[in-house]
Specification:
By secondary structure, the protein is mostly helical. Helices cover 72% and strands 0% of the residues. Helix 3 packs antiparallel against helix 10. The N terminus is likely disordered.
Amino acid sequence: MLESSSTLALGPSFLDPEWLISTFGLIGILALVFAESGLLIGFFLPGDSLLFTAGLLISGGTYLHQPLWLMCMLVSVAAVAGDQAGYAFGRRFGPALFRRPDSRLFKQENLSKARAFFAKYGARSILLARFVPIVRTFTPIVAGAGHMHYRTFLIYNVAGGTLWGCGVTTLGYFLGRVAFVRNNIEFILIGIVAVSVVPIGIELLRARRRNDHPDAQPEPR
């Protein structure tokens, strides 16, 4: 078992990655990845830290005893399937969703962030959004609502789901062999969360600057 206080550092105990894995195992990991990838209610789930912790636990032989290659394959399939579900949902209910009032589990602000992200990066957003919490949940829904060409969506979805699922899990696996990482896992997880939300912070700052200076010229790319 990991010696950490990540439960206190990262939020409620039911969102602690190690607790989730020790309680629900492989099936729980796949279900959570699917939900966070394409279901509206999954935006708050700890996707990045969950996969990193899964890789770390496989490295140490704790709770998870599947080979790394199998975990990466299954996680990638769950991630791709989640985005497919989000795309189908957006295609079917997209227009109504954009008119839906805020509720406890749904905020138009989150949908607007994904829409802005999609507008900025186009088809690439399906891949890039994989590495941005909250945005990755809503981007496939926005793509479906905007009737993005299905084949294009599928290509970027498979590429993004594989890179994210395999990359983050493998990173946790190899870093889990480093004593410093094992002994300071709570700080590592906080760092993962902090780095993953940096793109959102940058976009919010840019949006605020544009609102404060509406006549300013757009920044060159």
